[in-house]
Write a structure and sequence with these properties.
Number of strands: 0
Oligomer: single chain
Number of domains: 2
Largest sheet: none
Number of helices: 3
């Protein structure tokens, strides 16, 4: 073992930086493909997706029921704001 030399610190640092860049490039490449696939799926799903709302969590809460009516489009914004004020004042 006498006379054996290791890598100099500069060479070791350069190898680590190159290795890190290589791994980062591979991960970013795979991530870019993954997000592109999900963006395409999200665009098609958002045009015709349905919202599922469970009423079990807020039965008896008039403010929550009012919010659901507004979110689902059963009442206009003006109606929502008026009824919200009535509920908050009572």
């Amino acid at each position: 073992m006498i006379g054996k030399r290791g890598l100099s610190p500069l060479v070791a640092t350069i190898i680590l930086v190159v290795f890190s860049l290589l791994i980062g490039t591979i991960v970013m490449s795979l991530g870019g493909k993954y997000t592109a696939v999900n963006e395409d799926a999200g665009a098609s799903a958002s045009t015709g997706s349905a919202m599922v709302i469970s009423t079990d969590d807020f039965l008896g809460d008039p403010l929550k029921e009012l919010q659901i009516k507004y979110i689902t489009g059963k009442i206009s914004r003006e109606e929502y704001l008026e009824k919200e004020q009535e509920i908050l004042q009572s």
